[in-house]
């Protein structure tokens, strides 16, 4: 099923010097069976397991799966292969804390675009002696229960390969034996590969044991069906009552158990192997994370950082409220521009041209309105720029912290077969919620902190009062009385319309545009600010996310 050909993998150390972790390893692995990989820390066994699961890329050589080369595989190809064919089990269980047992078990099915069957999940839990655990929270489980659920999750999508990295490392000996018995049962029709330090368990339960040292295969042994001949070693009968157990004697006792099982193993190349690695279809399934689950995972950081979230939302909303203020100011200034147009129309009246004072008053107003329009536009642009920069960095920092918080969850998803676009979906869901909350807060600010007295009814009212009062106090009252009734009505209408600007339908139209602008601006700023950190995070290799590199 799997053929490893001259596989080489290098890493860069702290000095950026290449370190050869795997050195031209070649192995043939069968369609089914229980295989253990032994070796000390740094021997390369976990690296080899990660390469077999498509969590990382190899540098040289090839891995053929059902006769299909993976040399030219992209990350998405490995993700699809892992989603369709591989089940992972880790030492620290890697269950998602925010999901209950049933939701954790259903996750691999969701990623395959399938609907989880509660009846089937309950039956699976019963098979693992976990009947009635469907709605349990992860933090309510013991270590052994978590590991059994992790194994159940790995097989629920019926993969052809199960990869386990130190699955008994955090378990007591009794629970560890139960887990290994489960793996042995699964190996009857699946290929199960376990990385372990426990040589005794490897030879007790395994059908094949591969030992690595310094990136090379030190030994490759397979179980022989012939019963082993008695082995010489430590004899318990020779042990005298009251005799002190020295470290040497203890080591002999441990090795005796290992040797008893190891005696039934012979070199793999001496065992008949009918696995010809013929070319067969490789099961690859593109992942699909449901939107509801993406939103649930996207908002997990909100629960942990409630105070920080509220502070962040208030700052961002306050800045965007200022943008509403500047937009309203802009529309208020446009009203001055309309007044300017009215004044220009008045100045065309022959009767007004004969009044020097009134003409000077109009000219003064025209200059004032023009200056106000110019300054208002500049101030609006400056403040909008400040708002954009502030919200951009505030949101960006919040999302970066969220990425750090969710790294473990995302690592679990990637190990299960999730693609980069699923990562985007999670954080874009979070961004959508953030943008919506900021918009709501900004509009609430407007409702509770009205700006109309600050600008619209203040500046405009003062200008109209200045204009009209000066006109009404004109010494040439008789001339005012001679003005056409139409002119008087125009001046009165200008005054009434602008003082009651807030009640005018145009005001609400402008206000609606301002709110729409805020919503659009908020979503635009939020998604621009979160795209780059999410892009960098999503394009990482799964192993980099899992190991928090």
TrEMBL record:
Report how it sits in the membrane: Multi-pass membrane protein
Q: Where are the transmembrane segments?
A: 307-331, 381-399, 426-449, 505-532
- Decide whether keyword Membrane is in the record: yes
One GO cellular component assignment for this chain's record is: plasma membrane
Tell me which SMART domains the record gives.
AAA
Pfam families (UniProt xref): ABC_tran, FtsX
GO MF term (any one): ATP binding
Q: Which PANTHER family match?
A: CELL DIVISION ATP-BINDING PROTEIN FTSE (PTHR42798:SF6), LIPOPROTEIN-RELEASING SYSTEM ATP-BINDING PROTEIN LOLD (PTHR42798)
Write down what this protein is called.
ABC transporter, ATPase component
Q: Which organism is it from?
A: Phytoplasma mali (strain AT)
